[in-house]
Structures are given as structure tokens and as C-alpha cells.
């Protein structure tokens, strides 16, 4: 397998999903990390501005293979794809988006409560390696042979068409699964988008820079900066509420009786933190959004 070869010599090759919701999330993360590019219509290669990086747009299922075989240096795909392709890569940063589960699903009408009941049956999936590995344990115990049938798309339709007794597929919201009359019998693994690199890449310094940039952006999407004033005698109570990622920044004000405190807090905790700070006597409480960060 070879990657597209229209990359300038010496550039780091970075594979990202070419379409879908994961593509949109990845492009947003790259933009937030200052990795800018212009992709021409109908082309699956783009050279980045200001950095020796060539983006290669591939299907998410192929990215792990390209990175593992050294055709590209870096990639973003799902943890499930890395496991399914059985490749050796460095998983260097979990990105916190694209979260879903790989699950065994069976028709609701069959009322299957234990996955053991599906051992020896027909299972349709686009994850044959992970599915076989999962059912091998049950096959050995029960002395049966589960039939794994590979289907590249619309896996959830297999039961309704009489092609399979159950499927192994990804579940995000469950809407598609329920529409097909299926329900989860057993979860095989949880997955999310991850940044992976080839262990033998010649661009280790640039890989580290990209990792650091994306990590800074991801942190900025999760946290905000809270700033407030608090009297000296109440400061310890306040910083228990806002300990920061490592520790808060504390500055003495000219009056000598008050401190200015700033700390990172999770976005989802903003309202509760502000209420708690007000209750312990903090004043001038401000919350600021982050564009990017370095830790």
C-alpha cells in the first residue's frame, strides 16, 4: 500500500479522515492548532502553510494501515480502527471527540440478554478481526464456531435482511441501531479519535510539535480561565474550589489585604464554581474563554 506521492520532498505526511463528522472535528482541531491549509476541489492532498506538512485525506479505516506501514508519519483515526488493523503505531494523544462503542447488537424481538447465546451464530460486521477475537473465547468454551461475515457498510441492515443473527457495529447515539430494530447485548470496547504516529518516522521533532499544538487546542476547548479577588483570610477556602490544573496563579494587590487569583476550570463546572466562589466571599469574578494553551 502506498500513499499519494504529490507531497514536497522532506515534508511530514499527516493522514486525516476525508469526510464525515470525524473529518469536520479534525479540521476544526487543526485550525485551532494553527495548522492551516487549502484543499483544492477533488484533491486528497494539501500542503500546509508555514509548516513542512502534507495532509493526506483518506478513509478513517485506512489511516491506521498507512501509519503502521510507514507510508505516512502521522494520522488521526479511531482507536477501534487501530485495534482492528492490528498495526504497530504510537498512540500519542487521545482527542476526546468521536466517542462511541463497538457493540454486539441483536434484534429486540429476539430478547437476547446474554451474548453467550450468540456464540456459534452468524455475525455480520465491518470489524472482523475484533469480532473474531471477541467470540473466539466463547467458541472455545462452548465448542462452537461463530460465523463472522464481513460487510463494509449498512451493517445494521444485515439482521433484517436475514443475513445474520446479530451484528457488531459502532454505536454513538443509538438512533440508527434502534431504527433497525436492534439493541446492545454486549459492549466490546469504547473508542474515540486518537493521534497516532509511525514509530520509525524521521520527523520526530515535528511530530512532537504537532502533538503539543493539538493538545493545547483540546485543552482550550475543555477549560476556561476564572479570575477573581479574595481577601487574604479567605484565600485558602477559595483555592480549594479552584485548584487549577496544576496550581492557581496568585498575585498580591496593592492594598495588601487582598489577592487576585486565576485558575483553569472545566467549562462544564463554570456555574457551580462561580456560585461557590461567591459564597466564600470572592469578588470581581470573571470567566475568560481560551483560544489555545501550552501546559
Description:
- The mean pLDDT is 93.
- With 295 residues, this protein is α/β, with parallel strands linked by helices.
- The longest helix has 19 residues, at 204-222.
- The strands form three sheets. The chain has a six-stranded mixed β-sheet with strand order 2-3-1-4-11-5, sandwiched between helices. A five-stranded mixed β-sheet has the order 8-7-9-6-10.
- The chain has eight helices and 15 strands.
- Helix 4 (128-142) links the parallel strand 7 (122-125) and strand 8 (147-150).
- The protein has three domains: 12-98 and 192-220, 3-Layer(aba) Sandwich (D-Maltodextrin-Binding Protein, domain 2); 101-191, Periplasmic binding protein-like II (D-Maltodextrin-Binding Protein, domain 2), CATH 3.40.190.10; 223-289, Alpha-Beta Plaits.
Distance, first to last CA: 38 Å
Largest sheet: 6 strands, mixed
Beta fraction:
25-35%
The residue ranges in which pLDDT falls below 50 over 5 or more consecutive positions are none
What number is the mean pLDDT?
93
CATH superfamily of the largest domain: Periplasmic binding protein-like II
Number of domains: 3
Quickly name the level 1 CATH class of the largest domain. Answer: Alpha Beta
- The CATH topology of the largest domain is given as D-Maltodextrin-Binding Protein, domain 2
CATH architecture designation of the largest domain:
3-Layer(aba) Sandwich
* Global shape: globular
Q: Widest sheet: strand order?
A: 2-3-1-4-11-5
Task: State the secondary-structure class.
Answer: alpha/beta
Helix content: 25-40%
What order do the SSEs take from the amino end to the carboxyl end, as H and E?
A: EHEEHEHEEEHEEHEEHEHEEHE
Radius of gyration: 24 Å
* Quantity of strands, as a count: 15
Task: Give the number of helices.
Answer: 8
Catalytic activity: 1-(5-phospho-beta-D-ribosyl)-ATP + diphosphate = 5-phospho-alpha-D-ribose 1-diphosphate + ATP
Domain ATP phosphoribosyltransferase catalytic: 60-215
EC number: 2.4.2.17
InterPro entries: ATP-PRT_HisG_long, ATP_PRibTrfase_cat, ATP_PRibTrfase_CS, ATP_PRibTrfase_HisG, HisG_C, N-reg_PII-like_a/b, N-reg_PII/ATP_PRibTrfase_C
Amino acid at each position: 500500500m502506498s500513499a499519494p506521492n504529490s507531497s514536497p520532498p522532506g515534508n511530514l505526511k499527516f493522514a486525516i479522515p476525508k469526510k464525515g463528522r470525524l473529518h469536520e472535528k479534525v479540521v476544526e482541531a487543526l485550525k485551532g492548532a494553527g495548522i492551516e491549509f487549502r484543499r483544492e476541489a477533488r484533491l486528497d492532498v494539501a500542503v500546509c502553510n508555514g509548516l513542512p506538512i502534507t495532509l493526506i485525506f483518506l478513509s478513517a479505516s485506512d489511516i491506521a494501515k498507512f501509519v503502521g506501514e510507514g507510508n505516512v508519519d502521522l494520522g488521526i483515526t479511531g482507536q477501534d480502527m487501530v485495534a482492528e488493523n492490528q498495526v504497530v503505531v504510537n498512540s500519542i494523544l487521545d482527542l476526546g471527540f468521536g466517542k462511541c462503542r463497538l457493540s454486539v447488537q441483536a434484534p429486540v424481538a429476539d430478547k437476547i440478554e446474554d451474548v453467550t447465546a450468540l456464540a456459534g451464530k452468524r455475525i455480520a460486521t465491518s470489524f472482523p478481526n475484533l469480532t473474531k477475537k471477541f467470540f473466539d473465547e466463547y467458541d472455545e468454551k462452548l465448542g462452537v464456531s461463530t460465523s463472522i461475515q464481513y460487510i463494509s457498510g449498512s451493517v445494521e441492515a444485515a439482521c433484517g435482511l436475514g443475513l445474520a443473527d446479530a451484528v457488531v457495529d459502532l454505536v454513538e447515539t443509538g438512533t440508527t441501531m434502534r431504527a433497525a430494530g436492534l439493541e446492545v447485548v454486549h459492549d466490546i470496547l469504547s473508542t474515540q479519535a486518537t493521534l497516532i504516529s509511525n514509530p520509525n518516522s524521521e520527523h520526530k521533532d515535528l511530530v512532537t510539535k504537532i502533538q503539543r499544538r493539538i493538545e493545547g487546542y483540546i485543552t482550550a476547548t475543555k477549560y476556561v480561565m476564572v479570575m477573581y479577588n479574595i481577601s487574604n483570610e479567605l484565600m485558602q477556602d477559595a483555592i480549594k474550589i479552584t485548584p487549577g490544573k496544576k496550581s492557581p496563579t496568585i498575585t498580591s494587590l496593592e492594598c495588601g489585604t487582598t489577592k487576585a487569583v486565576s485558575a483553569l476550570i472545566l467549562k462544564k463546572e463554570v456555574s457551580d464554581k462561580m456560585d461557590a466562589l461567591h459564597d466564600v466571599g470572592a469578588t470581581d469574578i470573571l470567566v475568560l474563554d481560551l483560544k489555545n494553551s501550552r501546559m
